């Protein structure tokens, strides 16, 4: 199994993601700089990590979405390669048009960093199959712009087509319908604000994030 973590200027969870994937799955993980114009061959998983790409200037993820490597990320996603955007990575996926909606400032205009309990809304995706019927998991959030927004028609479509994957049990940032994570229509692109990379071993307070990486690579 082979994965790549995309590194943008300002990423700060890139190595966290690398270690989480390696320890959770045994996959070989390449770190790919945002300025690259090609991805490694034979990838089973691409991860856009958390952080503050380009210092969050303009809008979170807006500048990173135009990085050279994103042309290849979009092409790989269109071919069906599993692609995960975590926190800032979720923002980048939305800005790049790979997922609908946008991430706004948190409802109380404060940075939120804490453990959160999540409902697994759809356990039949390629990212959640390993949860095997578990309805609740625990991960952590760390964001100032984690407030997911989309118009009502888009939200209804996401709900109706099973694209809402995770939902906050206690909404920490004001996200519409308490949405914490969604997939695209094809089911191979996941965006989520909570960090599975900070919850992949029991010593971190939860190992629930490991199952997400295992699911993504088991389906490759």
Overview in brief:
The chain is 23% helix and 26% strand.
Task: Tally the helices.
Answer: 5
Shape: globular
Structural class: alpha/beta
SSE ordering: EHEEHEHEEEEHEEEH
Helix fraction? 10-25%
The main β sheet shows up as: 9 strands, mixed
Radius of gyration: 15 Å
Q: How many DSSP E strands? A: 11
Uncertain residue ranges: none
- Biggest sheet strand order reads 2-1-3-4-11-10-9-6-7
Compute the average pLDDT.
97
Strand fraction equals 25-35%
Distance between the termini: 8 Å
Tell me what the structure shows.
By secondary structure, the chain is an alpha/beta fold. 23% of the residues lie in helices and 26% in strands. A nine-stranded mixed β-sheet has the order 2-1-3-4-11-10-9-6-7, with helices on both faces.
List the helices and strands and how they pair.
Blueprint: E1 2-7, H1 14-25, E2 28-33, E3 45-48, H2 69-78, E4 82-86, H3 88-95, E5 102-104, E6 112-120, E7 136-143, E8 147-149, H4 152-160, E9 164-168, E10 179-183, E11 189-192, H5 208-218
Parallel strand pairs: 1-2, 1-3, 3-4, 4-11
Antiparallel strand pairs: 5-8, 6-7, 6-9, 9-10, 10-11
Helix pairs in contact: 1-5
């Amino acid at each position: 199994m082979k994965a790549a973590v995309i590194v943008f200027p300002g990423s700060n969870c890139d190595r966290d993601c690398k270690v989480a994937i390696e320890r959770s799955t045994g996959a070989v993980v390449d770190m790919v700089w945002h300025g690259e114009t090609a991805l490694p061959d034979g990838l089973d998983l691409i991860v856009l990590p958390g952080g503050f790409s380009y210092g969050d200037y303009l809008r979170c993820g807006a500048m990173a979405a135009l990085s050279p490597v994103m042309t290849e990320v979009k092409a790989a996603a269109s071919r069906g390669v599993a692609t995960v955007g975590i926190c800032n990575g979720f923002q980048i996926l939305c800005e790049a048009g790979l997922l609908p909606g946008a991430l706004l400032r948190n409802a109380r205009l404060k940075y939120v960093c804490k453990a959160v309990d999540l409902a697994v809304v759809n356990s039949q995706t390629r990212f959640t199959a390993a949860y095997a019927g578990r309805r609740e998991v625990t991960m952590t959030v760390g964001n100032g712009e984690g407030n997911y927004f989309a118009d009502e028609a888009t939200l209804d479509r996401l709900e109706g087509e099973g694209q809402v994957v995770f939902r906050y049990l206690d909404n920490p940032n004001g996200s519409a319908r308490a949405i914490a994570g969604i997939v695209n229509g094809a089911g191979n692109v996941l965006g989520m604000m909570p960090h599975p990379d900070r919850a992949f071993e029991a010593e971190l307070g939860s190992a629930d994030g490991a199952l997400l990486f295992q699911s993504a690579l088991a389906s490759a």
